[in-house]
Q: What sequence folds into this?
């Protein structure tokens, strides 16, 4: 009997902290049936918010995937001064509050910022436009691919890569045929996490986007906006879509993880 | 293809792994790099393959300076101690890798792979993954993979080190036979002197990054160039300030002729041979190797006092 106690405590904790709020969202959304939900979701400004979120994610995820894999290879396979600092830096977005990230972007790209004044002089608007949202999202989701790939690369070792090079493979051929297939599950797992983070980013984006309805408002911002305007059905409906995405992501991760361990 | 190593030095930080080593490997020979761990033998092999860059010195392959050539361009087959099997590829694709990279025609690759599968006795395993093979099978696959693109040199880094004793002995014989069949210039690294003596026709002994001696197994055993070689290649014991091989120790019932007094500590019969462990007055130990009938003739018993005299001994100035 005693061994069930920790399980019960763990389950109760998770229920209170995670499951109950999610169930609340679900229940509130469909409180008045399907029609208001559909109405809220097909609102053109909401549709725009979802589109923007998807576009930003579609840019941030590939960029961070390529960067994540490249930086992992650099950290695991090469020796260079400042490697430890780089390794620690990758985790910065995890430690830093998104609000701080937003603020620093604001300072860099604002009218009087280091880059901002130059860019504005060349007619490029970063702040309060989609480029700032993309930058904030990329920053927030930098660590995930590298954090998955680095341990896998370490465990893999470099003997297979050396074998490939003695067999006549170039650096790129070795990467394509040996390294990448060996780390693919770690990369996929990292991509899934990066996607989840990109879809859900709020704090940094809230500061740099300007929150212009129908123009620079992402899905998460739209939730807040609807809520502030007493459009509770709207807020809950968008939240539900985001929560459902998270659940799909979770399922994907559970499905992918065992395969990675088997490989 | 011949290999020439000229004054090669390699440091890892403060430690000198290879210290001004020069040696030559003749075309078609089977050479062992023998030494204890940390002697620099693996580093030297990796330098020949281009997997490490020497700090000084040159590597000449077939008369051409290959020192700065990448491993990709050296056309060298390399076999790793832990197989370095491509885990996500079948045995067939592992073996075909070098040919696929070279974009050889599909049917040529298929034929060559079949040929190699037969050579390493892995027919019927072509569609398995490395995880489904035993250690010995994986190493044979790695060998086939290294041989596929017809390398000019075959380099093996402790190829049998990770295998159990029986498989090890099997693969040893097999490598010897393979070399007679394929005749590719082969260099292998080992810390096992028996393995080096049994398989190779030339052995280079390394110690602390330096080349101690290179020669035929018999040369090393009979004419060791240094105390290190004498002790490392075969058994050697101290006897009256000199080094002596166990089978060069003569046992006498009477003193005389500068013989040393010893007590028999233990007699071990090993088939047709016997090993007599002795201890002298100062507590120093040595062993004599005799034929079993000699032991019986002399009627030796444990605890007995005897006199020993070396029939052949060596003194090295250090």
A:
């Amino acid at each position: 009997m005693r061994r069930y106690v920790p399980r019960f405590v763990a389950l109760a904790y998770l229920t209170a902290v995670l499951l109950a709020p999610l169930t609340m969202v679900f229940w509130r959304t469909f409180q008045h049936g399907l029609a208001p939900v559909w109405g809220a979701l097909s609102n053109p400004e909401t549709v725009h918010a979802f589109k923007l979120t998807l576009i930003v994610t579609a840019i941030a995820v590939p960029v961070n995937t390529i960067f994540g894999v490249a930086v992992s290879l650099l950290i695991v396979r090469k020796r260079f001064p400042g490697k430890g600092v780089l390794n620690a830096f990758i985790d910065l977005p995890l430690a830093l509050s998104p609000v701080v990230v937003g603020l620093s972007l604001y300072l860099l790209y604002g009218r009087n910022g280091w880059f901002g004044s130059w860019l504005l002089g060349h007619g490029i608007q970063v702040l309060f436009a989609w480029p700032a949202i993309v930058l904030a999202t990329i920053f927030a989701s930098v660590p995930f691919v590298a954090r998955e790939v680095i341990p896998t690369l370490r465990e893999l070792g470099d003997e297979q890569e050396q074998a490939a090079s003695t067999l006549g493979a170039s650096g790129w051929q070795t990467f394509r045929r040996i390294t990448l297939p060996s780390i693919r599950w770690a990369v996929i797992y990292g991509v899934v996490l990066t996607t989840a983070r990109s879809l859900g980013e709020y704090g940094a984006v809230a500061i740099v986007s300007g929150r212009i309805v129908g123009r620079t408002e992402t899905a998460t911002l739209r939730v807040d906006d609807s809520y502030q305007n007493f459009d509770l059905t709207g807020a809950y409906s968008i939240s539900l879509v985001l929560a459902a995405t998270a659940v799909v992501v979770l399922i994907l991760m559970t499905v992918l993880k065992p395969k990675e361990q088997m490989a | 293809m011949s290999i020439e190593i000229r004054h090669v030095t390699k440091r890892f930080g403060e430690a000198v792994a290879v210290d001004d080593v020069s040696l030559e490997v003749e075309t078609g020979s089977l050479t062992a790099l023998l030494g204890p761990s940390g002697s620099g033998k693996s580093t030297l092999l990796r330098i020949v393959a281009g997997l490490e860059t020497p700090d000084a010195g040159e590597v000449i392959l077939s008369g051409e300076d290959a020192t700065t050539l990448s491993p990709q361009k050296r056309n060298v087959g390399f076999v790793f101690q832990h197989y370095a099997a491509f885990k996500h590829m079948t045995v067939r694709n592992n073996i075909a890798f070098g040919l696929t990279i070279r974009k050889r025609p599909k049917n040529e690759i298929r034929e060559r792979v079949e040929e190699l599968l037969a050579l390493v006795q892995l027919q019927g395993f072509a569609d398995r993954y490395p995880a489904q093979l035993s250690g010995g099978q994986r190493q044979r696959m790695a060998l086939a993979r290294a041989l596929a693109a017809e390398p000019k040199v075959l380099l093996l880094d402790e190829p049998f080190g990770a295998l159990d004793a029986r498989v090890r002995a099997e693969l040893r014989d097999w490598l010897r036979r393979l070399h007679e069949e394929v005749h590719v210039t082969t260099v292998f690294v080992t810390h096992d002197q028996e393995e080096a003596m049994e398989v190779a026709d030339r052995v280079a002994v390394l110690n602390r990054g330096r080349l101690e001696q290179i020669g035929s197994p018999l040369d090393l055993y009979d004419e060791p160039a240094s105390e290190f070689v004498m002790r490392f290649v075969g058994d050697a014991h101290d006897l009256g300030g000199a080094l002596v091989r166990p089978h060069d120790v003569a046992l006498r019932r009477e003193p005389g002729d500068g013989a040393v007094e010893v007590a028999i500590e233990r007699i071990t019969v090993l088939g047709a041979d016997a090993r007599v462990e002795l201890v002298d007055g100062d507590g120093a130990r040595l062993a004599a190797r005799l034929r079993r009938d000699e032991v019986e003739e002399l009627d030796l018993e444990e605890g007995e006092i005897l006199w020993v005299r070396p029939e052949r001994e060596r003194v090295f100035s250090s």
User: Anything to note?
Assistant: The interface with chain A takes residues 49-51, 70-72, 74-78, 80, 82, 84-88, 97-98, 101-102, 142, 145-146, 148-149 of chain B (CB under 8 Å). The first strand of chain B starts at residue 3 and ends at 12. Chain B is about 30% helix and 30% strand. The mean pLDDT of chain B is 92.
